[in-house]
Structure to design on (756 residues):
């Protein structure tokens, strides 16, 4: 037993150092170098800039939209909402009073806007990350009447915008990126 | 449930079945220490590692020496990570200027990553510097996975060898698995992830002025290089708090699909490697058949429950399935599938918040872990755990026909059965013991976010995940306290090494035995009867042990939900 132990000491220590250098430094640093060279946009967060070069978001990560003029994003449990330094779901369970209260309030707010019928589930539930960049086509459609009213444009034009922006992947559910949709909304005249 | 949903699930299983033999063949080359095409490039690295650490890879080890070398290596890695995490504040690679971790959190995290658990009492964004993620955590993602596969190889040799003293060389196994399997795949995988929108940079957060004029900080980092091995090595520790639900870790349904495939690929392949090692690939397919049956049963329950949704929310006017804690780009089917994959394997990554699943939808992930994570399982750990159940199954079959049981040409005798029971008993003992304790003492009761039966589920889930070395969570539980950090740390260590040591002892004992050729009286271990017996033993053992605790948690929660009772 003692011999087994002493024979293991040197390999255990030296291998730890060697593997740490290879896997903890060389590998991620090399990947950073290659990734930055080949795919600089994606490697740096797929950032979106406006005409002046100012960063206004990322195509990948969601941002908060609360104004009635825009397609609003889902409820978020990331910090105070869409906090990019504190991703999180609500972690409220199915029999949680807090969850039921939150959903009830959000449903009521949609009713005030004039949404009738069943509310699309994603519109009143918090995502897993709190940074969900998307809405389901139904959740976007439920906001068309309000946006048309606030902006004073025809509802058909807003609906058409959704249709253009819906992504229907081969696998996965159809969805629409809210930032892209709202930028297109601002570009309407 | 939709046609597209089931198409996704069946496509997933179909691709994995097609990958089983090729992956198994590659693993078999490493099992035998054969030369691969990659030796041209990485052979000098392998030889250099041996030379510097004074290892002769041709000298084989008995099970005791194999175990001690493995334990000492893991202890050295544990200490390195503990030091990196504690010293984070003074080390470079820390663009957000984060302080070092508290002793209890560093202890918990170092054990967590060493044991392939990747339980995270912390949220990555506000806790880990880029250097800590790379040097402290990424190395374990590789080496805990390589250790698991090496241990499976050692057990395979126990079954395959005849009257032998040795079960392989630990260093040769770990080095070859890392260099010729994990690292090359991860290099290609990382580039694919970067191209698809996963960041890879040493920079910190970016400031954004949103379209509405608000300010948002978005954290970047070396995400892709960690994400690749997090999945392939069934580790599951997220760069970000939200893990694979975070858009930067998992930007699209396609990436999500690839991530799920990479969690299972090695586990599927190892069943084939086992069959090949013992001279009959049908032995491997029989094991895989039992695993896939259990897996599909789990997926069916969780998918059905999540698609049906929460009747409490329906009564408030909300349509459709349960979307609380789920991302729109994945939807219900891919979220349900991911949750079953990640808990069947000991991965523990999540793409949706399991705490917000319906009670029975969340019961399956919990039960998957309580079965010992032998449904595919963690890389290596899944198959060696499963073989412990196979030993019990042939023992039970032997009792029924009144004959000394045999498995793949080896007589299974009292010593092996006792050791297998010892290894399997660790799971219920620690899970139920610690969960019961935490349900009565104040620091334990301070943890849960949710009230009522769901709160108990959070506690039960935490210890199940820790002992099972899974790492997923009902994340409402506040686990970053000295009480939970210490208890969960101990649970993870027990769950890993108190299974491994008896398992290696079995490997040593089997290797020393003579080969017993199959005779007319042998119980066949390749047909449908055997697969049914395996599934039965696993379900009965897991069910009898854990059903009472499940009744107090998820089942009570389900009955409350149907009645519309809130907590």
């Amino acid at each position: 037993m003692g011999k087994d132990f002493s024979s293991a000491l040197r390999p255990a220590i030296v291998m730890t150092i060697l593997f740490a250098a290879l896997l903890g430094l060389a590998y991620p640093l090399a990947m950073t170098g290659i990734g930055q060279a080949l795919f600089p946009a994606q490697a740096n967060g797929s950032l979106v800039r406006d005409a002046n070069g100012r960063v206004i978001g990322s195509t990948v990560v969601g941002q908060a939209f609360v104004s009635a003029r825009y397609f609003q994003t889902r409820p978020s449990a990331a910090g105070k909402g869409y906090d990019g330094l504190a991703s999180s779901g609500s972690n409220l369970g199915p029999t949680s009073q807090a969850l039921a209260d939150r959903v009830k309030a959000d449903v009521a707010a949609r009713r005030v806007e004039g949404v009738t019928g069943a509310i699309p589930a994603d519109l009143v539930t918090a995502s897993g990350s709190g940074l969900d960049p998307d809405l389901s086509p139904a959740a976007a459609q439920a906001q068309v009447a309000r946006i048309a009213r606030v902006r004073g444009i025809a509802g058909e034009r807003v609906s058409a915008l959704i249709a253009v922006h819906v992504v229907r992947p081969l696998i996965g559910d159809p969805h629409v990126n809210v930032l892209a949709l709202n930028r297109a909304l601002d570009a309407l005249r | 449930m939709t046609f597209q949903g089931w198409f996704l699930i069946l496509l997933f299983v179909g691709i994995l079945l097609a990958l089983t033999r090729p992956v198994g063949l590659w693993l078999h080359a490493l099992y035998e220490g054969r030369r691969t095409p990659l030796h041209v490039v990485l052979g000098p690295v392998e030889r250099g590692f041996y030379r510097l650490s004074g290892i002769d890879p041709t000298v084989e080890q008995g099970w005791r020496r194999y175990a001690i070398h493995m334990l000492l290596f893991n202890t050295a890695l544990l200490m390195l990570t503990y030091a990196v995490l504690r010293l984070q504040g003074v080390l470079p690679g820390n663009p957000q200027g984060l302080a070092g971790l508290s002793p209890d959190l560093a202890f918990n995290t170092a054990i967590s990553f060493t044991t392939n658990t990747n339980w995270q009492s912390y949220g990555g964004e506000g806790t880990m510097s880029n250097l800590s993620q790379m040097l402290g955590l990424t190395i374990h993602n590789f080496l805990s996975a390589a250790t698991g596969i090496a241990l499976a190889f050692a057990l395979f040799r126990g079954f395959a060898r005849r009257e032998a003293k040795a079960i392989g060389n630990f260093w040769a196994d770990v080095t070859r698995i890392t260099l010729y399997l994990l690292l090359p795949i991860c290099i290609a995988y990382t580039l694919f992830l970067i191209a698809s929108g996963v960041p890879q940079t040493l920079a910190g957060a970016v400031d954004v002025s949103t379209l509405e004029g608000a300010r948002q900080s978005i954290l970047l980092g070396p995400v892709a290089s960690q994400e690749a091995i997090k999945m392939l090595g069934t580790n599951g520790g997220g760069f970000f708090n939200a893990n694979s639900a975070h858009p930067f870790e998992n930007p699209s349904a396609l990436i999500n699909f690839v991530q799920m495939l990479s969690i299972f690929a090695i586990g599927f392949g190892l069943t084939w490697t086992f069959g090949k090692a013992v001279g009959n690939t049908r032995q491997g397919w029989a094991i895989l058949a039992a695993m896939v049956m259990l897996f599909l049963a789990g997926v069916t329950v969780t998918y059905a429950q999540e698609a049906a949704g929460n009747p409490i929310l329906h009564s408030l006017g909300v349509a459709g399935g349960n979307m609380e804690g789920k991302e729109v780009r994945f939807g219900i089917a891919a979220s349900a599938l991911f949750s079953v994959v990640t808990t069947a394997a000991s991965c523990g990554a999540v793409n949706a918040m399991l705490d917000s699943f319906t009670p029975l939808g969340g019961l399956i992930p919990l039960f998957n872990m309580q079965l010992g994570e032998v449904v595919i399982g963690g890389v290596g750990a899944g198959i060696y755990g499963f073989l412990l159940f196979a030993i019990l199954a042939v023992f039970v079959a032997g009792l029924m026909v009144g004959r000394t049981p045999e498995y793949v040409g080896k007589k299974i005798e009292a010593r092996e059965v006792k050791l297998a029971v010892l290894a399997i008993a660790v799971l219920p003992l620690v899970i139920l013991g610690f969960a019961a304790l935490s349900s009565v003492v104040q620091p334990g009761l301070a943890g849960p976010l949710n009230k009522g039966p769901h709160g108990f589920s959070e506690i039960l889930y935490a210890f199940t995940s820790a002992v099972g070395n899974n790492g997923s969570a009902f994340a409402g539980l506040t686990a970053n306290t000295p009480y939970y950090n210490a208890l969960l740390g101990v649970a993870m260590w027990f769950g890993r090494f108190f299974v491994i040591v008896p398992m290696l002892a079995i490997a040593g004992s089997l290797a020393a035995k003579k080969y017993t050729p199959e005779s007319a009286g042998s119980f066949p271990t390749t047909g449908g009867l055997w697969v049914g017996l395996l599934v039965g033993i696993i379900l009965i053992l897991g069910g009898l042990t854990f059903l009472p605790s499940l009744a107090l948690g998820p089942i009570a929660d389900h009955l409350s939900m149907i009645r519309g009772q809130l907590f």
Q: What stands out?
A: Residues 90 and 100 of chain A are 12 Å apart (CA to CA). The first strand of chain A starts at residue 47 and ends at 49. The helical segments of chain A are 2-38, 40-43, 97-113, 137-141, 144-151, 155-165, 178-187. Chain A touches chain B through 103 residues (CB under 8 Å).
